[in-house]
Specification:
It contains 11 helices and no strands. The chain is mostly helical. This is DUF349 domain-containing protein.
């Protein structure tokens, strides 16, 4: 037993030389270097996103890096991002190798350590005789703990810290697709399409005329034929409600799509339709109020 203890002490002195360059503090330094490289890659990605958006707005189309290479800003930004991503990958490999080495050292020596520790606990030797081996075991346990901490640093990395740009081609294509889509002008709703606007202007003009004529008829019949007057007024109200639906649709669309309207090549046509329908609605409302004041509201 004493011989095993002495062998362990001799081997531990050799093992300490292997443990010496493996420290939890050094693993942590490698982790911090990796995170710093990743942050710089993220910054490079932000710049790349900006160049994609600018190139897309300038008229460049496509969903692959090759489609945007003719844009000098994009080409420079892509190159910078690739270089910084490569730095991150290098740091990642360095930390992974360091932690794997630490893990192997830990597992290999832990078996020897546990066996001797168990032997000393079972031994009936006097405490004085165990003093030296106990001190060695304690020193071994401290060294193992530090190596174990170093080995665990890589496993505690977040998913994004490990797999960022793992598939560079897919990453850049996904980024391109997303930014191009964001940069593309949103499609205007049907009501704001020029052709729909022309149609609605004619419809609004027709409805206004019907409201105007029906209101006049109701006013003319108010004294001699009040029932007929109310009937015409009811018809006028229905025409006005239909016109109000179109008007409200334009008001809601204009409010929601203000930026898109401003950026549209058909801006003048769209605003003309909105104004025409708005004016028709205003005039119809005035005619209906005047008729209602004279005839009274028609029953629902």
């Amino acid at each position: 037993m004493q011989k095993d203890w002495e062998t362990f002490q001799t081997d531990f002195r050799k093992q300490k030389a292997k443990f010496k360059p493996v420290k939890a503090s050094d693993a942590e330094k490698l982790r911090k270097a990796l995170i710093d490289a990743l942050k710089q890659a993220w910054d490079a990605e932000d710049t790349l996103r900006e160049t994609i958006a600018a190139a897309a707005k300038a008229g460049i189309k496509g969903a692959k890096p090759e489609d945007f290479q003719k844009d000098k800003d994009f080409a420079r930004a892509l190159d910078a991002w690739k270089k910084q991503s490569a730095v991150h990958k290098t740091q990642l490999k360095a930390l992974e190798a360091y932690c794997k080495n630490a893990d192997k050292l830990y597992l290999d020596w832990k078996k020897r350590h546990d066996a001797i520790e168990k032997s000393v606990k079972k031994s009936k030797e006097a405490p004085a005789a165990k003093k030296e081996i106990t001190a060695t075991i304690k020193e071994s346990a401290t060294a193992l703990e530090d190596v174990k901490t170093a080995a665990e640093v890589f496993s505690k990395l977040k998913v994004a810290e490990v797999f960022y740009a793992a598939n560079e081609k897919r990453t850049i294509e996904t980024l391109l697709k997303k930014e191009v889509k964001k940069s593309a002008p949103k499609e205007l709703p049907k009501i704001l399409e020029p052709a729909e606007g022309k149609k609605n202007q004619k419809v609004a003009t027709t409805m206004l005329k019907k409201v105007k004529d029906l209101c006049k008829s109701a006013q003319d019949l108010a004294v001699e034929a009040p029932k007929k007057a109310l009937g015409d007024l009811k018809k006028a109200q229905k025409q006005f409600e239909a016109l109000a639906d179109i008007h409200n649709g334009y008001q809601a669309a204009e409010k929601k799509q203000k930026k898109e309207i401003a950026a549209s090549e058909a801006k003048a046509d769209i605003l003309r339709a909105i104004k025409a329908v708005q004016q028709a609605h205003k005039e119809a409302q005035a005619h209906l109020k005047e008729a209602e004041d004279q005839v009274g509201k028609a029953p629902a």
